């Protein structure tokens, strides 16, 4: 398991590999466009070459985080269609850059109810992935929340994957498991036994071979609080034991872990990564 963090793409995405290296990240994720909206910056041949040279030089793997406004179940055609085209663009851009995968949240069914919402997401993802031949893998990220948020349970994610693959064929979709989101949504990760139980459940419902990446975030909020608040590794409600267990699981040796905790006066990325590396080697 390799450890990394989210890095800024300010000044161009080709700045990301050296920024990741500077904080001790072995892998990293970034936004290839503004997470709030607007057109994507052009990927020139030079930017692509620089980016790939950086990956090679520092032996890194890169992941792209989709923008925040994605909602495949919005009643607004502008948001719905925008979500489809942006995710497809991001997959193609990721393939050009040599990124391993792109993860996205699916959206909220607050406009339409859960059953129609799930259908809309499935239809949307079929449009995203139809004819896609790129190398950047598509990942669904589990979300934190109660009923209206789509993708907060393993069952919901599995049903969407099944619906998409029924039409497009198998093995199109992977999953990014966010530990803080899972914990807030009712998957307990506080003890070794509980961590193993959650992974067993994941394997039974989704399949462990689909687990492509872990967003390793501790949680500021309590178990089953259905809120999304990240905390530094070991300082939140999940705690060190949970992360120590997770990073020590042999079956996950090929699965990388990326932290998404904003730097503050307590810790920055470098310190969180040092904690993880220590846990991984204990
Ligand atoms: Zn996340
Ligand atoms: Zn989050």
Structure overview:
With 282 residues, the chain is of the alpha/beta class. The protein has helices at residues 16-22, 45-58, 77-97, 114-129, 154-168, 179-184, 192-205, 240-248, 269-281; strands at 3-6, 27-30, 61-65, 101-104, 137-141, 173-178, 211-215, 218-219, 230-231, 256-259. It has an eight-stranded parallel barrel with strand order 1-2-3-4-5-6-7-10, surrounded by four helices. Helix 1 links the parallel strand 1 (3-6) and strand 2 (27-30). Helix 3 packs across helix 4, helix 7 (192-205) packs across helix 8 (240-248) and helix 8 (240-248) crosses helix 9. It starts with a strand and ends with a helix. It binds zinc ion (ZN) (2 copies). One zinc ion is lined by residues 178, 180-181, 228, 230.
Beta strand count: 10
Q: Give the % helix.
A: 40-55%
Q: Which hetero compounds are present in the coordinates?
A: zinc ion
Major sheet characteristics:
8 strands, parallel, barrel
> Distance N terminus to C terminus?
14 Å
Query: What general form does the structure show?
Result: globular
On the 0 to 100 scale, the average pLDDT is 96
Total helices: the number is: 9
| Strand fraction | 5-15%
| Order of helix and strand elements from N to C terminus | EHEHEHEHEHEHHEEEHEH
Q: What structural class results from the helix and strand content?
A: alpha/beta
Spell out the CATH superfamily. Answer: Divalent-metal-dependent TIM barrel enzymes
Q: What is the level-2 CATH architecture name? A: Alpha-Beta Barrel
Describe the strand arrangement of the main beta sheet, using strand numbers: 1-2-3-4-5-6-7-10
CATH top level assignment: Alpha Beta
- Stretches where pLDDT falls below 50 for ≥5 residues? none
Please give the domain count: 1
Could you tell me the radius of gyration in angstroms? Answer: 18 Å
CATH topology: TIM Barrel
């Amino acid at each position: 398991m390799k450890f990394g963090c989210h890095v800024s793409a300010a000044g161009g995405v080709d700045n990301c590999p050296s920024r990741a290296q500077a904080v001790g990240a072995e892998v990293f994720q970034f936004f290839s466009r503004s997470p709030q909206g607007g057109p994507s910056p052009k990927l020139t041949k030079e930017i692509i070459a620089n980016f790939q040279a950086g990956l090679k030089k520092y032996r890194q793997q890169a992941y792209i985080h989709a923008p925040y406004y994605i909602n495949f179940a919005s009643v607004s055609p502008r948001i719905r269609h925008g979500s489809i085209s942006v995710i497809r663009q991001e997959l193609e851009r990721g393939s050009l850059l040599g990124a391993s995968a792109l993860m996205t949240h699916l959206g909220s069914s607050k406009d339409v109810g859960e059953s129609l919402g799930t259908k809309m997401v499935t239809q949307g993802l079929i449009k995203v992935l139809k004819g896609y031949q790129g190398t950047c893998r598509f990942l669904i990220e589990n979300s934190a929340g109660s009923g209206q948020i789509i993708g907060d349970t393993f069952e919901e994610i599995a049903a969407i994957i099944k619906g998409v693959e029924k039409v497009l064929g198998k093995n199109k979709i992977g999953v990014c498991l966010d530990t803080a989101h899972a914990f807030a949504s009712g998957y307990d990760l506080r003890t070794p036994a509980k961590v193993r139980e959650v992974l067993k459940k994941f394997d039974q419902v989704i399949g462990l071979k689909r687990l492509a990446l872990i967003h390793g975030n501790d949680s500021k909020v309590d178990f089953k609080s259905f809120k999304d608040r990240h905390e530094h590794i070991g300082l939140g409600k999940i705690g060190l034991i949970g992360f120590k267990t997770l990073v020590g699981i042999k079956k996950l040796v090929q699965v990388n872990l990326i932290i998404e905790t904003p730097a503050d006066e307590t810790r920055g990325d470098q310190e969180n990564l040092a904690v993880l590396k220590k846990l991984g080697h204990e």
